[in-house]
Amino acid sequence: MKLIMEVVPQLPTSYAQQALSGSATILAAAREELDRAAGRRIEENRALRRLFAEAKGVVTDSDLAARLAEAAASEEGSLLISELDRSNQQLRALLIRLHEHVEGLKGDAARRVEAAIWAELRASTERRRSMLGNF
Amino acid sequence: MELVDRLQAYVATRLPRALDVAVANLERIFGGGSRETYRFTVSYREAGRDVSRRLILRRDPPASLIETERRVEFAAYRAFFGTRVPVPEPLWLEEDPRHLDHPFFIMEEITGCEATPFRLMAPPYDAHLKEIGRQKWTILGEIAKADPQALGLIGVMASVAPDEAWRRELSLWLRDLDADEIEPQPITRAAIRWLRANPPPPAQRISVVHADYRTGNFLVDETGRIRGILDWELAHLGDPLEDLAWGINRVWCWNRDDRAGGLLPKDEAIRLWEASSGLRADRAALHWWEMFSCVKGQAIWLSAAREYHDGRNQDPIMALAAWMQCNSQDRTMLELMGHLP
């Protein structure tokens, strides 16, 4: 806020003022993200592993079932954000494959997995919710 | 040579009867991820008179939020200038990079106006939000009903059959999404599967589609009058519902409530558009285009993130756009798919 309230008005051009205001806004958002960065990744990776453990008995593709079982049993090797991100990206890529697969399956078990996926996707947007968004 | 000097030299070549051509007050305008935009003043003597004009320079940057065709953008301004769709007068298109390093075009500046959404939501403009909304969707209806042939845009913009418009646009944005996403996007991928499984009916007509028609891309004066529709860089021929859907996307709800574009309730916006265009916004078809607009939006935000992440364009607008919009876009898709309480 100090940047926006005190420094921005002293800049000579509208472009410089707005560029610095934009950068200050990014800093504020980064502060929000920094606090939750590790927490939300750990929480999400756990949630995805739980979901995969439940889904592996429902899928009809043996290769996918094996990948789900392997992912469900995996653990974080490090708490560095970059490492947590790597795990998260692998898990979310697998989630896409699982989602597509269960959409094509019939039966209550598949619908339960699908509902669990949507619940997790809803939760994932809450974990990532930004102070900057309009919605 | 400084940009101002090179610009002055160029403008002088475009004004062969003018004497003492001078460019001054060159100032960059913040925002706009696809072009560098500057305002400047040009003064000269012509036929014994002193002339001073305020102009806008739109120059291609080294890397942009959206890769676009400036020839099409220029043609759109030229086509609509002087019609019921207010636009600034386009002057010169220059594609030879020797003048200013990158292609560019120059147009007249519409002065005394504001476009920035945050400012439009505040005094003195906020007293006119309903009226701005009424004009916004009425003008969009005018764009939808305009005849591309009569506007001279056939051939400039690629033609498309009514039953192919959705497929072409979806393919276009998926290409960007696939190339630029930094991490997997499960909500967007689910939306794409839905779009492919539930194609919309053929377009009721092929119209000019502005393709970035939103609050922030038009100029408003202090009385609440829309004076110019800007940023035609994505304009193309297609289904007019594409524009309506983009304009009512949740990410543009600048007042953080249900008012589309921060201006009017969504149903009222649709009604105004229907009345102005003479077209019907079939709700199922519009729903498809709304979902599409989310996928397109996500492609744009993720491309911006990629450009910034890779260091190809470190304008803060690139990071800000991605940070601001990605999550809202995901939430909008969840809502449209019925998965948000």
Topology:
The complex is a heterodimer of chains A (135) and B (341).
Chain A lengths: L1 H6 L6 H42 L6 H12 L7 H23 L4 H21 L7
Helix pairs in contact in A: 2-3, 2-4, 2-5, 3-4, 4-5
Chain B lengths: L2 H12 L4 E11 L6 E11 L2 E11 L10 H11 L9 E5 L9 E5 L4 E2 L2 H4 L8 H17 L19 H16 L5 H12 L9 E3 L8 E4 L4 E4 L6 E3 L2 H7 L11 E2 L3 E2 H12 L5 H27 L6 H21 L5
Antiparallel strand pairs in B: 1-2, 2-3, 3-5, 4-5, 6-8, 7-10, 8-9, 11-12
Keywords:
heterodimer; A: 135 residues; mainly alpha; 0% strand; elongated; B: alpha+beta
Tell me about this structure.
The complex is a heterodimer of chains A (135) and B (341). Chain A has 135 residues and is mainly alpha-helical. Chain A has five helices and no strands. In chain A, helix 4 packs antiparallel against helix 5 (108-128). The longest helix of chain A has 42 residues, at 14-55. The radius of gyration of chain A is 20 Å and the shape is elongated. The mean pLDDT of chain A is 95. Chain B has 341 residues and is an alpha+beta fold. Chain B contains ten helices and twelve strands. Chain B has helices spanning 3-14, 70-80, 117-120, 129-145, 165-180, 186-197, 241-247, 266-277, 283-309, 316-336, and strands spanning 19-29, 36-46, 49-59, 90-94, 104-108, 113-114, 207-209, 218-221, 226-229, 236-238, 259-260, 264-265. In chain B, strand 8 and strand 9 (226-229) form a beta hairpin. In chain B, helix 4 packs across helix 8 (266-277) and helix 6 (186-197) runs antiparallel to helix 9 (283-309). The relative contact order of chain B is 0.14. Classes of the chains: A mainly alpha (135), B alpha+beta (341). The interface between A and B is medium-sized, with 34 and 35 residues.
Question: Summed up, what is this model?
Answer:
Chain A has 135 residues and is mostly helical.
Q: With helices defined by DSSP (H or I, 4 residues minimum), what is the helix count of chain A?
A: 5
User: Which descriptor suits the 3D outline of chain A?
Assistant: elongated
How much helix is in the residues of chain A? over 70%
Number of helices of chain B: 10
Radius of gyration of chain B: 20 Å
SS-based class of chain A: mainly alpha
- Strand-residue fraction of chain B? 15-25%
- Globally, the shape of chain B reads globular
Oligomer: heterodimer
Order of helices and strands of chain B: HEEEHEEEHHHHEEEEHEEHHH
| SSE string of chain A | HHHHH
**Overall pLDDT score of chain A:** 95
Kindly state the percentage of residues in helix of chain B. 40-55%
What's the pLDDT, averaged over the residues of chain B?
94
Largest sheet of chain A: none
User: What gap, in angstroms, lies between the N and C termini of chain A?
Assistant: 23 Å
Radius of gyration of chain A using CA atoms only: 20 Å
Extended strand count of chain B? 12
